[in-house]
Amino acid sequence: MSVAQPLRIYYIELRTAKDVECIELIIPGCRRSIQQQSTKLFREEFPQPLTIQGEAFSFSVHRKKWYSSFIPAAINGIKINVRDVLSNSREQKFRAVYRDLDITIGLSPSADAMPTPVTPTPSNINNLRPTTDELLNQCPRFRILVIGQSGVGKSTLISKAFGIAKASSENLEPRKAHIELEYISLDNDRILLHDSTGFEPADNVNSDAVKLFIKDRKKRERVRDQLHAVWLCFRIPIEAHGDRLLEDGAETFLKQDNSVLQNIPTIIVFTKYDKLLTYMAMQREADADAAAKVYLQKHCFGPIAKFTGSTDLSYVAVSSNPGLEDGRKRLIDLTHQKVAERFKFQTDTPSPVSVVTQMAQRTLPHLKIEGSIDVGTQS
Fold first, then answer.
1. What are phi and psi of 127, to 5 degrees?
2. What local confidence, expressed as pLDDT, does residue 108 receive?
3. Which DSSP symbol is given to 300?
4. Cα-flanking dihedrals φ and ψ of residue 221, to 5°?
5. What are the phi and psi torsion angles at 327 (to 5°)?
6. Which has the minimum average pLDDT: 7-16, 152-161, 168-177, 350-359?
7. Is the sign of the CA dihedral 187, 189, 191, 193 positive or negative?
8. CB atoms within 10 A of CB 287
9. Under a CB-based contact definition with an 8 Å cutoff, are residues 65 and 159 in contact?
10. Is 376 or 270 the better-scoring residue by pLDDT?
11. What beta strand segments (E) does the chain contain?
C-alpha cells in the first residue's frame, strides 16, 4: 500500500463546547500543545508549514477534572487519517467534528497539488523525534515538593500554576498528606506532585520526614526520580494583627536544617498577597503596591535571609485573585530559571528536566515556545 503524501499545515483551530484544559497535537515521536486563545478556542499557527509524514496524526484532549485517586492519565485521542484530510479539503481547508470537538486545519497551497515528496529539512517536525523522545524518556514529568500548612493556599496555587482543576480538600487535605505519595492529574500528566504539611510547633515528625525524603531523592540515579524543585509556602503575616512570620517548626527547619535544600531549586512562596494589599490600602498608603513590596522585604524576605544565612533561597509573593497574576508568573519563571541552572548539561543539549518543566507549567506560554525551539535546534 502506498504511503500518504506529506501533509503541510499552516494553522490548526479547535473549538469545544466543554471545559478543556489543554489539547496536544500528536504525530509519530512528537507531541506539542495547541495554544489556548479563549475558554473554548484553541489555535496554533505555523509560519513555516508543519509537515506531517505518515498515515495519521491525532489530538489528545485533556478535560478539566481532578480524580479522587490520582492515577496516570489515559490518552483521550482523536485520530485523523492524512488521506481523509487531503481528499476532503476544500480551498486548502479541512473541517470535521469529532464528538464535541470542531476541528479546522488550514493547508498550504501545495498540499492538494500532489507535489513530489519534499526532502525533509531541519525545520521538519519529524526531525524532532529522536531528541523529543529521548528527553521525555529520561524525564517524563516535573517532580515538585510543595510544603505548606492548611489554609495557606497550596491547592489554588497548584491549580493556577499547572492548569489543573482545583484540588478538593479530600485530595490535598493536610492530615492525609503523605510526602511519599505521587500525585498525578489527568488534567496535566507532565506534573508530579509531592505534598507535605507545614512545620507545626514542636512537630519534629514532619520535619524529619521532609529531610529524609529530600535526602533520599538526592541519592536517586535517574533524573526522573530526583526532586526537581521545592516550594515552601507561608501566608504573609500582618504584624499589626499579631501574625508571626513563621511557626517555631518552620523557623527551626530553616535555621538549622536548610542545608538539606542545597543543590535543589527552592523558592519560598508567600501567599495571600491580596490581603497585604488590602491592609496597605486601609492604612491609606498612597501606593499600596509599593508599600506592600517594602513591607515584604522588611518583614518577610529580609528576616529569613538573615537567619538562614543562605544566598540560594529565592522569594516570591503570590495571590490567587484576578488581576494579580504577576506573582505567579514570576514564580514559574524563577522556578524554570533555577531548574535550568541546576540540571543543565555541559553541552548545549537541553536538559530533560528543563524541557519538562516548560511543558508542565500553564502560566507562561512563551516558555513552551522556547522549549520547543530549544529541542528543535538540536535536531
1. -65, -15
2. 79
3. I
4. -80, -45
5. -65, -45
6. 168-177
7. positive
8. 10
9. no
10. 270
11. 7-16, 20-27, 30-34, 36-38, 41-52, 56-63, 77-81, 93-98, 101-107, 142-147, 183-185, 188-196, 229-235, 266-271, 314-317
Q: Phi/psi zone of residue 242: left (φ > 0), alpha (ψ -120 to 50 degrees), beta? A: left
Greater confidence (145 vs 370) lies with 145
Confidence check: pLDDT of 156 > 80: yes
Q: Could you please report the per-residue DSSP string of 331-343? A: HHHHHHHHHHHHT
CA 274/CA 284 separation, integer angstroms: 15
Q: Give the pLDDT confidence of 305-328 residue by residue, as tens digits.
A: 888 887 668 999 999 999 999 999
Give the three cell numbers for residue 332.
514559574
What pLDDT shows up at residue 74? 40
**Cα(227)–Cα(268) distance, integer angstroms:** 16
- Residue-wise pLDDT for 242-274, tens only, equals 998 888 788 888 887 788 888 999 999 999 999
pLDDT, averaged across the chain: 80
For every residue of 304-355, DSSP letters joined together read HHHHH--SS-EEEE---STT-THHHHHHHHHHHHHHHHHT--SSSSPPHHHH
pLDDT, residue 118, reads 37
Cα angle 324-328-331, degrees, rounded to a multiple of 5: 145
Residue whose C-alpha cell is 535526602: 215
Give backbone dihedrals phi and psi of 292, rounded to 5 degrees, phi first.
Answer: -65, -40
DSSP alpha helix (H) spans, 154-193: 154-162, 169-172
